[in-house]
């Protein structure tokens, strides 16, 4: 389809780091039925556990570019010259731990033939029995896990944030260990690297029934981003401070022959998240000062964004396979210059800079203005899923938390380097600036194919090996856009209806968006679709979210 010769390994790495910018609708149905309200999982009327104390790691290297309290990341223009230790001794007891997580890579070689796997086991002091689930199989596998016997659960389970599992909160509450006594408030001080996880990640993970059941995988504030081939768009007339009309003109001028300014993948809704944010529309849910929740579909700005996307599509600016091409194939088209832009997660900056080096300069697009109003950007959920533990004795839970504490080692530590690059001389060498550079073995044996980073990880920083100008550009972009980030007000909140019907209801509206922009359904039918959505459970969802929001304030 793409005509690209980009290696599959490179594409998988791009998708893995990008962070599930496009997620397919859920196919899980096995756990979606059942009676009972949300009295158990809702936080309304419950005594809320205190969030874990936030104690930033202070022994590591200072960033070259400072973070801000509102969400600009710390930036490192060079790899630290001196690494620190964050864990004094291996945390394990020589036992075997069973773990399960999503994966965006290829199946790794077994531990007996995998030096990266062996190095991680040695550092942790345990044997790892790893069940690795591809993103495509995750929902189906989790349906089996969620309906299976409690004894078959792994010790450590990654609940992937790229999908919504039906009755997910009920499953976690019923089967997972309540971690409140171990992590709430100052209790987390026993696990310093977990205490280094900022409060925003815990909040966006959320409580269940007032309690803490998981450990979040912290993520930056920027979410879905329009990534540009900078020269491609500058040649087409891109300028600072562009308007929606400017954007449309550039997209049209940048399309011709077999090249298209705008790429989109199946499930991305023609880059709907980016365009609705630029129009100032809510990101799924907005909350008023009085605590009332309103869905984006009922906002006129969202409808205007649909009309704008329809305009772009009619102008021929989108790649013709925008409703069917995979994210992997779209990445190949972007890297070979067939499309000038694509929507992807913010974390995709790393593979985009590394994989395009020498070909073109990638850049995050600044939002265009609409009718004189500056545009916004998509704010991500600050927790890219979370990790839960199988119910066990106090001693076993403390062991597992020590393991996760090691996996959450911060940037600039020896543990972080091992978990992200492997063993020096075996998996990587160093560049002239000291940056780790993966060798052939390191490109196969790594934390993409053995995805320990989806069990626990450090707070994210901006760093591109050997490319300080890229880090400066990314940091400057965040300084401009973080103040206009639009957040989904439902993050971290519980709703029984969303848990049981949310996936189906979302798929209904998403399919309508795609049909409208593709020209299969008239834009005039959007309001009727929203009315149907509200009647099928949307209004009930809004009420439940409002109650949970009030409880969490």
Features:
three-stranded antiparallel sheet, D-Maltodextrin-Binding Protein, domain 2, five-stranded mixed sheet, disordered N terminus, 18 helices, 2 domains, 35% helix, alpha/beta, 553 residues
Summed up:
With 553 residues, this protein is of the alpha/beta class. The protein has helices at residues 8-18, 115-124, 138-147, 168-175, 180-183, 192-195, 199-205, 230-235, 244-253, 272-278, 300-314, 327-335, 349-356, 394-407, 414-421, 468-481, 496-518, 526-552; strands at 96-103, 127-134, 156-159, 215-218, 225-229, 285-287, 293-295, 341-344, 362-364, 377-378, 383-389, 428-430, 436-438, 485-486. It has two domains: 96-220 and 383-460, 3-Layer(aba) Sandwich (D-Maltodextrin-Binding Protein, domain 2); 224-378 and 491-552, D-Maltodextrin-Binding Protein, domain 2.
Write the layout of secondary structure elements.
Layout: H1 8-18, E1 96-103, H2 115-124, E2 127-134, H3 138-147, E3 156-159, H4 168-175, H5 180-183, H6 192-195, H7 199-205, E4 215-218, E5 225-229, H8 230-235, H9 244-253, H10 272-278, E6 285-287, E7 293-295, H11 300-314, H12 327-335, E8 341-344, H13 349-356, E9 362-364, E10 377-378, E11 383-389, H14 394-407, H15 414-421, E12 428-430, E13 436-438, H16 468-481, E14 485-486, H17 496-518, H18 526-552
Parallel strand pairs: 1-2, 1-3, 10-14
Antiparallel strand pairs: 3-11, 4-11, 5-8, 5-9, 6-7, 12-13
Helix pairs in contact: 1-12, 1-13, 10-11, 11-17, 17-18
């Amino acid at each position: 389809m793409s005509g690209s010769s980009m290696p599959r390994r490179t594409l998988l790495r791009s998708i893995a780091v990008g962070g599930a910018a496009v997620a397919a609708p859920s196919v899980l149905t096995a756990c979606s039925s059942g009676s009972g309200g949300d009295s158990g999982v809702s936080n309304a009327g419950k005594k809320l556990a205190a969030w874990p104390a936030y104690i930033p790691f202070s022994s590591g290297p200072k960033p070259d570019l400072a973070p801000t309290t509102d969400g600009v990341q710390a930036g490192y223009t060079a790899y630290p010259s001196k690494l620190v230790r964050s864990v004094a001794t291996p945390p394990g007891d020589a036992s075997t731990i069973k773990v399960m997580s999503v994966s965006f890579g290829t199946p790794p070689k077994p531990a007996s033939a995998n030096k990266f796997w062996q190095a991680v086991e040695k550092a942790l002091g345990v044997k790892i029995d790893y069940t690795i689930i591809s993103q495509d199989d995750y929902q189906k596998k989790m349906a089996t896990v969620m309906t299976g016997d409690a004894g078959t659960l792994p010790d450590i389970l990654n609940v992937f944030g790229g999908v919504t599992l039906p009755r997910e909160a009920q499953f976690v509450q019923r089967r997972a260990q309540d971690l409140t006594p171990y992590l709430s408030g100052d209790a987390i001080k026993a696990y310093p690297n977990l205490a280094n996880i900022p409060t925003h990640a815990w909040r966006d993970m959320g409580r269940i029934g007032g309690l803490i059941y998981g450990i979040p995988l912290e993520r930056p504030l920027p979410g879905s981003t329009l990534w540009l081939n900078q020269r491609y768009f500058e040649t087409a007339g891109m300028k600072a401070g562009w308007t929606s009309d400017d954007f449309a003109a550039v997209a049209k001028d940048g399309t011709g022959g077999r090249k298209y300014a705008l790429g989109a993948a199946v499930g991305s809704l023609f880059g709907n998240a980016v365009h609705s944010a630029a129009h100032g529309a809510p990101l799924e849910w907005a909350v008023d000062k009085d605590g009332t929740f309103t869905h984006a579909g009922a906002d006129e700005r969202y409808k205007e964004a649909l009309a704008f996307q329809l305009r772009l599509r009619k102008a021929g600016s989108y790649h013709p396979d925008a409703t069917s091409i995979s994210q992997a194939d779209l990445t190949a088209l972007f890297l070979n210059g067939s499309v000038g832009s694509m929507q992807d997660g913010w974390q995709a900056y790393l593979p985009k800079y590394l994989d395009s080096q020498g070909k073109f300069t990638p850049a995050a697009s600044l939002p265009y203005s609409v009718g004189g109003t500056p545009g916004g950007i998509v704010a991500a959920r600050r927790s890219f899923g979370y990790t839960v533990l199988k119910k066990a004795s106090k001693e076993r839970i403390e062991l597992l938390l020590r393991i996760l504490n090691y996996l959450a080692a911060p940037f600039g530590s020896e543990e972080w380097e091992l978990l992200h690059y492997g063993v020096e001389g075996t998996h990587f060498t160093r560049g002239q600036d000291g940056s780790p550079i993966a060798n052939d073995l390191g490109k196969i044996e790594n934390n993409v194919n053995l995805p320990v980073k989806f069990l626990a990880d450090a707070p994210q920083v901006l760093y591109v090996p050997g490319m300080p100008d890229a880090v400066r550009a990314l940091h400057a972009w965040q300084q401009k856009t973080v103040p206009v980030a639009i957040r989904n007000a439902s993050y971290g909140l519980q709703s029984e209806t969303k848990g049981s019907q949310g996936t189906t209801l979302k798929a209904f509206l998403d399919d309508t968006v795609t049909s409208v922009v593709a020209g299969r359904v008239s834009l005039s039918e959007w309001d009727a679709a929203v009315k149907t959505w509200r009647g099928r459970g949307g209004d009930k969802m809004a009420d439940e979210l409002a109650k949970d929001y009030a409880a969490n304030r």
